[in-house]
Amino acid sequence: MYPVFRLIGQLIKHRNAPPLPVTGTHVSHHMCLPWDIDIWMELNNGRTLTLYDLGRTSAAQRAGLVSVLRKKRWGLTMAGASVRYRRRIRTFERIEMRSRLAWWDDRFFYVEQSMWKKDGECANHIVYRSAVTGKAGIVTPQTVVDEIDPATVKPDAPAWITAWIDADATRPWPPMQE
Questions:
Q1: Residue 97: CATH number of its domain
Q2: pTM over 0.85
């Protein structure tokens, strides 16, 4: 089940936080609860993605994206992700999550997120490809950014993100059926 109450809690917790620049980093804190674990007694990989939702939503709220989406009646969808898991997160372990918009191209936003353990080790890291949608299809990211803050300067494309985009473009679609 989706952690609606945790999402509401995060939104309430950060509702009075200072506004975040479009490319600013949102920091949030979370705990691995008993219903987040898998049979190996660690944070389930699917639940990891769900917890990342909590960080992205609060970041979007602070950056002004949520209000623009409501005003324009636009939607938000995921178009891809690449995650790297490196350290286990166990039950009742607290983590710090960092969420930020890393870059955008002509169609997609690329959101970077990471979870950090108390000892300073990065447990996992993800990049999402996301799109804003309207009645006519995908809304260009620059249009969205201009609605939030026209003074925002587009960052340079991180090499590792462009390499992922290039590699993902070679992946067959639709996948083969055997």
A1: 3.10.129.10
A2: yes
